[in-house]
Amino acid sequence: MMPPKAIDVTLSPKLEQSRDDFVSYLRFERRLAEHTIEAYATDLKDFFQWWDAKGKDDLTDISANHLEVYGQSLNKRGLARRTVSRRISCLRSFCSYQHRQGLLSADPTFNLETPKLSKDLPRVLSIDEIDQLLEAPDLAKPVGIRDRAVLELMYGSGLRVSEILNLPLDGLRLEEQFVLVTGKGNRERAVPLTAPSSRAIRNYLSEVRPGFTKKKDPGTVFVNYRGGKLSRMGLWRILNGYAKQAKLPEDFHPHVLRHSFATHLLEGGADLRVIQELLGHASVTTTEIYTHVDRGLLREVHQQFHPRP
Asked: Would you say 134 and 155 are in contact if contact means Cβ atoms under 8 Å apart?
């Protein structure tokens, strides 16, 4: 059963202004990605609707007790632990911002506990499953040629979905065999291209993209057949369709290609710091989740390289 949705109500002008100010801070000072800003705005609106339903619009009244009650209300609505954790984290950021601006005399989230999340290991595809997925697009069709290029780039270079969708044409360096990507926090990085990725992208650029962009061109590498920029949901549907065609597990998610890229590199002997740079992680701690290498492989490497195996 799906959890009940919160009733969408119009916020008071005062609360709307508070949300808009916070969103501007996220966009122009913290320079977060748009989809991250949208998530913050949605989470904050949920709290404001709850606050408004209490007959309040003065944020200076917020206390730690209010936030604990709100957290309990999220659990009662049957929301996933990850969603509850994200909304509490959003409130931490918002209240901290309000406090720094002098709008709150104290930060009510200072001692607020966030639900602990287990660090689930990423789902990883085997090499055979990757091959099945990459072979799924029909290269006799224009969209199949485009989709093969998307899949090759996602697995071959470990790009995020947002990085694929926003990749500009001038980010391609096909002669030098790499691509310039702008990731989280507007950090730019150069990621090498595999030979299959380069071939697939060249084929798409020469044979398909010109026909798709006859009427309009958004300037991004990957476009739909009408010449518009691919949407996140549209790309998800495309990839999910190929996953079903390749008979991959039902829990397939586009991010699985990025997980597989990192894990296969690590299993092949790549240094964790190099993988961190390729993935665009700000901290190697984030990358360490990929160290779930098969124990048999670890023993094999240990025996091969240790002077006294």
From this structure: yes
